[in-house]
Amino acid sequence: MTNETVSKSPRKPVLPWFGAFFVAIIAAGVALNLSDIKDPLVANLIMASPMVFIVKAGLNAMANAGTQGAVGSPTRNYLKRMLIVSLTYVGSLIAAVMLIDEGDPITPLSMIIAIVPGLAVVGYFWAIGRFILEVKDEFIRMLNIRQSLIATAISLSAASVWGFLENFEQVPHIDAYWWPILWFFGLGVGGIANKITYGTAGDSM
Question: For residue 134, which of 77, 79, 74 has the smallest C-alpha distance?
Fold first, then answer.
């Protein structure tokens, strides 16, 4: 089967599955608030169940990238890595919540359990870095690097300002894992900046 034949395959929907994910997340949160579920395992499984929509969106996006042949290979690899990292993050976070209770003694095992979700977040940065290295189009690579730099400027600037405010007891403490979350939000800002400046947001990120 040639690349020309493959490229004519109908594109699979992606955005509707992301929409279903956000709707399911809200529905799960409302359901937990209205219910009397006390079992943390059941509660976590309910909150994690919308991940099936993310998996479907990722698989569809990978299939769409596969229709582009060698050009789409970096995007397909990127999406595959991001999907694996996402599942690892959710699974390890649920495990940590289930296995580590507040007040438990710190042990080597508890440290290992607690560190895995953080390492999964590191995996996101690794996947993005690999994509930038693998993509062949210099313009797309520039857009993604610019997008990452904007995200980095936003997250590190916010962390610096908030850190000094917190040090002088002007604001409450914020857990450090919120800064990578802000970085991912910054990717969206960077994509919008690319769209305004160059007419396109880039690829995948």
Answer: 74
